[in-house]
Specification:
Shape: globular
Number of domains: 2
CATH topology of the largest domain: Rossmann fold
Number of strands: 26
Distance between the termini: 53 Å
CATH superfamily of the largest domain: ANL, N-terminal domain
Radius of gyration: 23 Å
Number of helices: 14
Strand order of the largest sheet: 6-5-3-4-7-8-18
Largest sheet: 7 strands, mixed
Length: 493
């Protein structure tokens, strides 16, 4: 079994059922299947893609996104998912690291494509505007892949300052999807609202693979601004499930009295910690609508825990392990800790990645004795519920997307006149966190904050760019020279 084969089974029984709602369009499973077949033929015949070749998917949210995934898998390729907020220089690194030579993209990224092509002239681009319909019988036979074959490289930034490609297999995703079917009680008539980026691991699995392998429908939101568009899609398309990050649930909790969303049966929060105050406000506004929190890093495909929808969820908890997955709280020596004791959250199960692409040392640090060491700090209570209390690494979460300070710091260091730099996260009611930069300037240099901001923004995705830069005479450091970010957080208050 592989992901394309699983999708083909769904198409066989749901061919003319709505798969995607996109604005006023209603697209059936057959629509995706025809474009999957066309893309598979184009990749193999025109672009020479063979089994195991990496193919990049660089798209904004669109109905063609799943066709791109299943088309690559039908051809035997490995999907390299590109965050569409990244700048061409950042994309160039991922393509070089993964070895992808074919990029599936669209006209809205044309300017970035031109810059990327100048950086990597060997690339070939296949645009979704060229996608055509093709009967499945006219496409090449699907590649003979199994669950152990690599399905995707999902890049997650690392403490080294360079992104790392999490190697996820067909079996990793299939096991995660099957577990989600059970713990989220998926059924054929569900309509899942997708407003978060499809490239995000949360939406890749829960928002794309789960509904389309179940035979359900995706309500794909064209624009989240103004928020009225989201509400219109929920009501007009009778969406039943809403997976989202905490700011979305905060917005729902603030809806005026009398505005009801009767079709929704379940809201799921992931991608970032759900503040207890938001949960309280949501339940006060929608007392009969469950809002449950889950957890999981990209490296676990990504879902690892979720609060029960049949039973009693616990506020502040990320829930219980999903079916087939084990969790453990461990100390720095890898010893399991007792109930109530804080340590590093570790995951073991068929959803855990094979490792990091071309990074055996990072893989060995992260996966030990089949346990995935997440870098997240938390504890387990007597009922088996897990809680996330902190992050071992200095990662920020901006709108649920990972941002690693060192990557930002290295860019700031390149600005003329900057002698030293450190980046921390500060709380933000709308985005969860925002990067804040502290800089030390060379003697006699005055900070031109706008010029520095523009410099960083040119090289990094907008969500990674600090909104403010604060000048210090020197960064606080300990005896070994390590920057004391706890002291910087105090200064930021």
């Amino acid at each position: 079994m592989n992901l394309f084969a699983a999708f083909a089974e769904t198409v066989a029984r749901r061919r003319y059922h709505p798969a995607i709602f996109w604005g006023e369009a209603q697209l059936a499973y057959d629509w995706i299947a025809q474009r999957t077949a066309w893309l598979s033929r184009a990749l193999t015949r025109d672009f020479g893609v063979a089994r195991g070749d990496r193919v990049a998917v660089w798209l904004k949210n669109c109905p063609e996104f799943p066709a791109a995934l299943f088309g690559v898998w039908r051809a035997g390729g490995v999907v390299t998912v590109i965050n569409n907020f990244l700048k061409p220089e950042e994309v160039a690194f991922i393509l070089g690291d993964s070895g992808a030579r074919v990029v599936i993209t669209d006209h809205s990224l044309a300017e970035n494509q031109a810059r990327l092509a100048a950086l990597r002239p060997e690339l070939k681009f296949l645009r979704i505007e060229d996608f055509g319909a093709l009967a499945e019988a006219d496409a090449p036979a699907p590649a003979d892949l199994n669950e152990s074959d690599l399905a995707a490289l999902l890049y997650t930034s690392g403490t080294t300052g360079h992104p790392k490609g999490a190697m996820l297999t067909h079996g990793n995703f299939l096991s995660n999807v099957r577990s989600c079917f059970v713990c989220l009680d998926f059924h054929d008539e569900d309509r899942l609202l997708v407003l978060l980026p499809q490239f995000h691991s949360f939406m890749f699995t829960v928002g794309t693979l789960c509904p389309l392998l179940q035979g359900a429908s995706v309500v794909l939101v064209k624009s989240v601004s103004p928020f009225k568009h989201v509400l219109d899609d929920i009501v007009h398309r009778r969406a039943t499930m809403l997976p989202a990050v905490p700011p979305i649930h905060r917005a729902l909790a603030g809806l005026p009295a009398g505005m009801e969303l009767p079709s929704l049966r379940l809201c799921i929060s992931g991608g970032a910690p759900l503040p207890l105050e938001v949960l309280k406000q949501f339940h006060a506004r929608f007392p009969k609508l469950p809002l449950i929190e889950g957890y999981g890093p990209t490296e676990s495909s990504p879902v690892a825990t979720v609060n029960p929808i049949h039973g009693t969820p616990k506020a502040g908890s990320v829930g219980l392990p999903i079916p087939g997955v084990e969790l453990s709280i461990r100390d720095d020596d890898g010893q399991e800790l007792p109930v109530g004791t804080t340590g590093e959250l570790c995951i073991r199960g068929p959803n855990v990645m094979r490792g990091y692409w071309n990074q055996p040392e990072e893989t060995a640090k992260t996966i030990r004795d089949a346990w995935l060491y997440t870098g997240d700090i938390g504890h387990r209570d007597a009922d088996g519920f897990y809680y996330i209390t902190d992050r071992k690494k200095d990662m920020l979460l901006v709108n649920g997307i990972n941002v690693y300070p060192r990557e930002v710091e290295e860019v700031i260091h390149r600005f003329p006149g900057v002698k030293d730099a450190a980046v921390i996260g500060v709380p933000d009611a709308r985005r969860g966190e925002q990067p804040l930069a502290f800089v030390v300037l060379a003697e006699g240099v005055a900070l031109d904050e706008k010029a520095l901001h523009d410099f960083v923004r040119e090289k990094l995705a907008d969500y990674k760019v600090p909104r403010h830069f604060r000048v210090l005479p020197a960064l606080p450091r300990n005896a070994t020279g390590k920057v004391l970010k706890t002291a910087l957080r105090e200064l930021a208050k």
